[in-house]
Amino acid sequence: MDFIQELQKELVEINNLPAFSSGDTITVSYKIKEGNKERTQQYQGVVLQRKGSGTSETFTVRKMSGNVGVERIFPVNSPFIEGIVVNKKGYVRRARIFYFRERTGKSARIREKRAFVKA
User: Which domains does the chain have, with CATH numbers?
Assistant: First the structure.
């Protein structure tokens, strides 16, 4: 088992991503190849979960497109992720907020963590 993990560490490039967790609103810059062209797409939404560990870690982001909820699963160590920007830190009490799928309107709000800076 250790041999497989050591081999994965050597072969997979690890992205330097900011710290984020479930409840945070993030923007993922993702490279998309269409034919011989390549472009960057921005995907902004709320993180529902982070799952796995090491090279197989993934995170799920949910956004609203019109009145339809769209979820996308991104591998953390994907070479197609150019960067992640944390827009808001959310305060949630669970690691996986699947209850967020059924929420609409005011109940779909997530409290924001405020960072206190000493002057």
Answer: 18-100 (2.30.30.790)
